[in-house]
Amino acid sequence: MMVPVRCFTCGEVVGEHWEEYSTRTAEGEDAAAVLDDLGLKRHCCRRMLISHKDLVDIVAPYQ
Fold first, then answer.
1. CB atoms within 10 A of CB 22
2. CA-CA-CA-CA torsion for 3, 50, 16, 56, nearest 10 degrees?
3. Which of 50, 41, 43, 42 is nearest to 18 (CA)?
4. Residues 7, 14: contact at Cβ < 8 Å?
5. In a domain? residue 7
6. Which of 22, 54, 59 is closest to 38 using CA atoms?
7. What is the pLDDT of residue 1?
8. SS3 annotation, 7-63
């Protein structure tokens, strides 16, 4: 589904980082280094991007 705009725990905006995070990790960069570079220091914010699975392409045909 869609990337959450804000962290569920602390309310920090995390949705704006999804495109860069997914692109850089797909190119083979370490996820921890990318999150540090994006400025996501809290564990709760980091888990929002690490645990996200983009399912919109799978769900879209069933609408």
1. 15
2. -30
3. 50
4. yes
5. no
6. 22
7. 60
8. CCCCCCECHHHHHHHHHHHHCCCCHHHHHHHHCCCCHHHHHHHHCCCCCHHHHHHHC
Q: Which residue has the higher pLDDT, 32 or 2?
A: 32
At residue 40, what is the residue type? Answer: L
Question: Would 4 be classed as within a structural domain?
Answer: no
Within a domain: 24? yes
Q: Which residues does 34 contact at the CB level (< 8 Å), separation at least 6?
A: 20, 21, 24, 25
Q: Domains in the chain: how many in total?
A: 1
**pLDDT tens digits for 41-53?**
999 999 999 988 8
The predicted model gives 22-42 an average pLDDT of: 95
Within-domain flag for 1: no
For residue 47, which amino acid is it? R
